From TrEMBL:
All copies of domain Shikimate dehydrogenase substrate binding N-terminal, residue ranges: 24-111
Record-given protein name: Shikimate dehydrogenase
Residue spans crossing the bilayer: none
Keyword Transmembrane helix: no
Xref: Gene3D superfamilies: Leucine Dehydrogenase, chain A, domain 1 (3.40.50.10860), NAD(P)-binding Rossmann-like Domain (3.40.50.720)
Record keyword Coiled coil present: no
Organism for this UniProt entry: Pelagibacterium luteolum
């Protein structure tokens, strides 16, 4: 705990009564644009609003430190937290309550601290669905292949069904995780199954979504062989740093309709800001801030 306290020393003595302090917990998040979106919107609304990156890699923290970090930030007066890879599911055991959507999805990306405890929310689901509705409004949605069944993948799977996907094939390198997510989706009366061969599933898919970290600066590469993509298919990615991932770049070059992760990043932040402050943010202003910073 001494190492943890030293690493987070800048947050121990928060000044300015009435200031709003938010943290983003994750690994390899130095390129995140969440801080600038939140800070600028806070300034626009006249708030003393602070958004801190708490990168477990940069601070030398282990996954086992998650509970202590959350407790420390709550104790020193943070209003809430955003949660990103790889903690969207492991955070659940450190919360006292979940919103209905977060409970249904089984993953959290936003935590609110209050006198009632720590409540987890999921704004990723709405963020991806809204981005999809705007960015790929006319694509076929009969069958979709989703790569990745982690915390972000769970939110994306629910969002895909929300926007009208009829059949969802799910692949994850951890087969049991894909099977668990498919079973959860099926229990809601929707059509979903885990697949063991993504390339076989891709052949019959109208589109593919990357919900893995592969393609991030920290995890270079492709989640699936891009040479197997057909121009008739669409491709979506939830990664936004880099803004245009290798998958999106190759898919676009092959003639596929594409959806980069920037839309999801913007819209999940819009909903999270409202939860943190109780104020309706300007989605247009937050989007402009993102575009200017990207």
């Amino acid at each position: 705990m001494d190492t943890l306290t030293r690493g987070l020393a800048e947050f121990i003595n928060l000044s300015a009564k009435g200031a709003v302090h938010i943290g983003l917990l994750g690994r390899g998040i130095g390129a995140s644009l969440s801080p600038v979106m939140h800070r600028r919107e806070g300034q626009r609304q006249g708030l003393d609003y602070h958004y801190h990156l708490i990168d477990f890699d940069a601070l030398g923290l282990g996954d086992h430190d998650l509970g202590d970090v959350v407790a420390l930030l709550e104790r020193v007066g943070f209003a809430g937290l955003n949660i990103t890879h790889p903690f969207k599911q492991s955070i659940l055991s450190h919360l006292s309550a979940l919103s209905p959507q977060a409970e249904a999805i089984g993953a959290v990306n936003t935590v609110i601290f209050s006198s009632d405890g720590r409540k987890g929310h999921n704004t990723d689901c709405w963020g991806f669905a809204e981005s999809f509705r705007l960015g790929l409004p006319d694509v076929s949605r009969r069958r979709v292949l989703q790569m990745g069944a982690g915390g972000a993948g769970a939110a994306v799977a629910h969002a895909l069904l929300e926007v009208g996907v009829s059949e969802l094939d799910i692949f994850d390198v951890e087969g049991a995780r894909a099977a668990a997510l498919a079973e959860q989706i099926s229990s809601l009366g929707k059509s979903a199954k885990a697949v063991s061969s993504p390339l076989v599933a891709l052949a019959g898919a109208d589109g593919v979504v990357n919900a893995t970290p592969i393609g991030m600066t920290k995890y270079p590469g492709y989640p699936i062989d891009p040479e197997a993509l057909s121009p008739r298919q669409w491709v979506a990615d939830i990664i936004y740093f880099p803004r245009i991932t290798p998958l999106i770049e190759v898919a676009s070059a092959r003639g596929c309709a594409t959806l980069p992760g920037s839309g999801m990043a913007i819209f999940q932040a819009v909903r999270a800001f409202e939860l943190f402050t109780g104020r309706a943010p300007s989605r247009d202003d937050m989007a402009r801030t993102f575009e200017a910073a990207a």
